């Protein structure tokens, strides 16, 4: 039985976080009412940073790595700048969990000494600060994943990916906030509290890698690592206007992290990089999946496929892309997302690519219903058993876990499990066949799907509690496809008028509620990003295609 309730546990965790920050940085405080919407801009102009720090935190990973390698910057200076930024990001957005400044400085100094002594970098990520979602274990720090049961529990063994990244030269300095058990579409929990969007304080940074999204958008991290089982990398990446790669299972090492539903393998959880720069995702992937690291030698779940370059052949060939329109059969996107879809379609056509409409209404609804039911059924006992002893209440969007547990779905049984797997396999095969069938009438097979990441541009805080919907990202997890988000535009009250209520035909109850929430004034400035979806194990192609799409959007603007 638990000896403390979650409130006492939370107080201990928050005190530790505050003390670890206060040991190095004193952040200014402001009246909430005086803060503008855009917290990132506010911070950059606040006078908190020196010019030197501003130059560092606004640089992307390739520049940072180069400046450290050529000794223009020390790893220590770079680390200090990002630690200082993260302290303010915490103050303004509540994006952090564990604070690792002391060991980050020590590691950065070691790397600087190593470079001075040997004239060589330790690896391709030498000196790069990388932020980690809370589920990655950096022993001895706890990995709460937003639950009292784990919040103050010291851990002994690093997650495999953490060891790999450290050996490549990365510096870990913070871990970032997540929702309870990492199973909500926004970042809130009973231990650390709610995280908000750095680019618009009334909006959610999404979840479950929401702390990453806020921290990176705040320019307090050049690169972070998130995890994704239903959209947990792509939802926060999209809502904070950045690139986020959700790979298929079997490429990036997954061994030894904390999981929200341990042992659940019906929908496979994966991890991947998030950054404002697409190039950073390339650098990260090339480093982690290199022949040198050979992660498949140490993670028994991985396929021995080293990172491949220039996979789109011949170079410069035109792509064939299926774009999903404004609905997926269950929900309709908000007007700013519709405009982003149109902008992307027009930009690709202008660049000479073959673009056509890919329908989602026949197969996506079944996929979405299955994945949402699977989470509740498979997570019911796992999550309820951890929350109950500490009297932790469920957030509204997670009540399905409690309901499933009460209904006995925790003991789901082999027959139901088998049938769930059979149904999933059948839908996966049918989707692949539909993809394959695009090679017809003399046209080549479709290269990618482009679609929304959610019905919203980043939605208001709390919106997904009543209207939980991850179908736009979840179908990709169900199919185990890779996908990468890309920023397109910001919501604009003059361009993005609400849909006409009289003629709007709602596809479901949730569709009606989501559309009713749209308010052009409130959402003005909200980030809008879409995603490029490839076929299984096509991570390299997805990143190359995302670059092509980003270039086309830039050329068209
Ligand atoms: C917020 O501020 C940052 C930094 O100045 C800027 O890049 C961004 O475009 C601003 N607005 C939004 C909505 O992202
Ligand atoms: C997007 O394109 C469709 C099809 O051309 C068009 O009907 C619709 O009005 C456009 N929407 C916006 C917001 O531009
Ligand atoms: C896959 O596409 C090819 C055309 O490229 C076609 O010949 C074949 O019948 C298709 N297979 C299935 C199962 O649809």
TrEMBL record:
Family, as annotated: Belongs to the amidase family.
Catalytic residues in the record: 133, 208, 232
Record carries keyword Nucleotide-binding: no
Domain spans labelled Amidase: 77-543
The UniProt record lists the keyword Lyase: no
Catalytic activity: a monocarboxylic acid amide + H2O = a monocarboxylate + NH4(+)
Organism: Knufia peltigerae
GO MF annotations, alphabetized: amidase activity
InterPro entries: Amidase_CS, Amidase_dom, AS_sf
Record: residues binding substrate: 182, 208, 229-232
Pfam families for this protein: Amidase
EC number, as in UniProt: 3.5.1.4
Keywords for the protein's UniProt record, in alphabetical order: Hydrolase
Gene3D superfamilies attached to this UniProt entry: Amidase signature (AS) domain
Protein name: amidase
């Amino acid at each position: 039985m638990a000896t403390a309730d979650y409130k006492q546990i939370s107080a201990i965790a928050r005190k530790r976080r505050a003390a670890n920050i206060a040991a190095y940085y004193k952040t200014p405080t402001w009246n909430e009412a005086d803060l503008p919407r855009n917290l990132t801009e506010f911070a950059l102009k606040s006078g908190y940073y020196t010019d030197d720090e501003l130059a560092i935190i606004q640089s992307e990973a390739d520049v940072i790595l180069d400046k450290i390698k050529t000794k223009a910057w020390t790893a220590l200076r770079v680390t200090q700048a990002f630690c200082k930024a993260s302290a303010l990001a915490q103050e303004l957005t509540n994006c952090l969990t564990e604070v690792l400044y002391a060991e980050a400085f020590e590691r950065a100094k070691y790397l600087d000494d190593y470079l001075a002594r040997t004239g060589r970098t330790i690896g391709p990520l030498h000196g790069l600060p990388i932020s980690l979602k809370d589920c990655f274990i950096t022993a001895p720090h706890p990995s709460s994943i937003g639950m009292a049961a784990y919040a103050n529990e010291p851990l002994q063994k690093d997650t495999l990916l953490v060891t790999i990244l450290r050996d490549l030269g990365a510096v870990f300095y913070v871990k970032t906030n997540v929702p309870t058990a990492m199973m909500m579409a926004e970042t809130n929990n009973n231990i650390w509290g709610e995280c908000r969007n750095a680019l618009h304080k009334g909006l959610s940074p999404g979840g479950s890698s929401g702390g990453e999204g806020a921290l990176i958008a705040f320019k307090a991290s050049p690169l972070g690592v998130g995890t994704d089982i239903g959209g947990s990398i792509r939802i926060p990446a999209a809502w904070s206007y950045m690139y986020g790669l959700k790979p298929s299972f079997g490429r990036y090492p997954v061994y030894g992290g904390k999981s929200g539903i341990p042992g659940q393998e019906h929908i496979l959880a994966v991890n991947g990089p998030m950054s404002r720069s697409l190039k950073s995702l390339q650098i990260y992937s090339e480093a982690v999946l290199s022949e040198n690291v050979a992660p498949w030698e140490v993670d028994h779940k991985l396929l021995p496929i080293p990172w491949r370059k220039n996979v789109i052949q011949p170079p410069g060939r035109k792509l064939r892309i299926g774009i999903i329109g404004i609905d997926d059969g269950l929900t309709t996107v908000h007007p700013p997302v519709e405009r982003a879809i149109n902008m992307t379609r027009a930009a690709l056509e202008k660049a000479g690519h073959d673009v056509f409409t890919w329908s989602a209404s026949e197969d996506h609804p079944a996929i979405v219903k299955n994945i949402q039911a699977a989470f509740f059924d498979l997570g019911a006992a796992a999550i309820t058993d951890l929350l109950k002893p500490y009297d932790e209440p469920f957030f509204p969007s997670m009540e399905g876990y409690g309901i499933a547990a009460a209904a006995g779905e925790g003991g789901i049984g082999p027959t139901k499990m088998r049938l769930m797997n059979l149904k999933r396999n059948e839908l996966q095969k049918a989707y692949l066949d539909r993809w394959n069938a695009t090679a017809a009438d003399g046209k080549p097979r479709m290269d990618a799907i482009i679609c929304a990441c959610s019905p919203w541009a980043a939605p208001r805080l709390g919106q997904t509690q009543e209207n939980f919907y991850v179908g736009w990202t979840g179908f990709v997890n169900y199919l185990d496809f890779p996908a990468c988000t890309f920023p397109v535009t910001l919501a604009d009250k003059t361009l993005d008028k609400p849909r006409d209520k009289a003629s709007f035909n709602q596809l479901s109850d949730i569709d009606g509620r989501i559309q009713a929430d749209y308010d052009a004034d409130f959402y003005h400035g909200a980030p809008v990003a879409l995603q490029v979806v490839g076929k299984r194990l096509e991570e390299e192609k997805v990143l190359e295609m995302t670059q092509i799409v980003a270039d086309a959007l830039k050329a068209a603007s």
